[in-house]
Amino acid sequence: MSMPEFATPEALIRKKTILVVDDEPDVVWATTRMLEKAGYTVLSGSTAAEASSLTKMHRPALVLLDVVLPDGDGLEVARQIKLDSDLAGVFVVLLSGIQISPQEQAVGLKSAQADGYVIKPFSNVDFLARIEAFLRIRSVQEALRESEERYRILFTRAVDGIFILSVNGKLVEVNESLARMHGYSTQEMLHMTLKDLDTPETSQLAPERMSRVLAGESLTFEVEHYHKDGHVFPLEVSVSLISSGGESCIQCFQRDITERKQAEEDLKESVEHLRRAIHTTIQVLVLAVETKDPYTAGHQKRTTNLARAMAAEMNLPPEKIEGLRMAGAIHDIGKISIPSEILSKPTELPAIEYSLIKEHARHGYEILKDVESPWPLADIVYQHHERINGSGYPRGLKGEEILIEARILAVADVVEAMASHRPYRPALGMGAALEEIEKNRGILYDPAAVETCLRLIREKGFQLEVDAYPIDKSPLRPGRGRNMPPAVPGQEVPN
Q1: pLDDT tens per residue, range 401-412
Q2: In the CATH scheme, what architecture does the domain 159-256 have?
Q3: Fewer Cβ atoms within 10 Å of its own Cβ: the N or the C terminal residue of the chain?
């Protein structure tokens, strides 16, 4: 079969080329003159041999061929032209000087496999109109042929497996890639049905998918097929309903995704290794905090439990909740750089010492910023003392500039700090803690996080378990302690 030329310059010239073959010189001359005046390129001949050779040499768009030629039958020449795959697209119109009936014309056309009939003599106007009509038909047929040839090239040369499936599941047509993918020859596969390839799990889903496709829906999904040698391999399949030969059938594209699945598994395993390494790192950091200050360690644990519960109640994605859990467990890790005597001081801190305490968020960020992690741990720790109105520290971030995890952690941090005992003051109580976040909802604290925290504690009975950690019974200095609620909105509650 000849390859389609798809509008090359030579093909464009041939679309305007007509070959006239007749043993009457006057007919050839008159016909050539009419066609050339109409803008066509005309070739001519007078014998069956010339008709064959000129057609093969020039592949004209149209051959006007006399039925009776001195060296042969024009009908046979026409038939040979139409049967030659290298001449696909050449239109053949028979010329006859004998008046014959439409029925006789039909018989001649069928015998010669020709495309049309013109009876001589013919007038200029009528003849040119017939020629234009023939060429329009030929143009439509050529476009269809080229489209089919393009599809055939794509079908046969595609890297993906392609097959046509009848509505009863029989493989009607398959390409080499599909056969190779499954370990069969194309001929072997044409004697198979889709059930021969599907695993039991895939077969269970096939009827429902088939119904959706027959209803006109295009689907993409993953399946598993059996290879000829018995092993199972994964495929990505795209399926749609098409019409072929007037009948509905299903066109399927398949891609072997074994390597992709393996890459996904490798990535998943790498992430899991990284996750375990991060867990270990977090545990080491938690131990470091516990060694230096058990009160800070207890605060981190209780804050994390509340923050996780809030995040789950707010329907955060599991990955964000996990990241919040990790960050919460070490959100005060920066305090390991602060002298123990300041952390455990049972009196109100002077300004210089309080400024050192406030540096713990920045120190925590510096400790964590180079730790590889699937979560923004360093940023959550960095931002957990930022406030919605920009009055927080260390950077004065506002609103959406603060990560949602940090906004949740900030609320849980304040509630735990106020509700729990500290070396420098007794617990202020859950009532005071909830009053603080309710009063400053939308000012200091994220409104959604506050609403969630209030609902969890007031309506759903969430408890901090404040007695699960050591309590220092040493006497307190009279007066206001470090963690008393702020006197005015915007004043930070240290914790």
Answers
A1: 999 999 999 999
A2: 2-Layer Sandwich (3.30)
A3: N
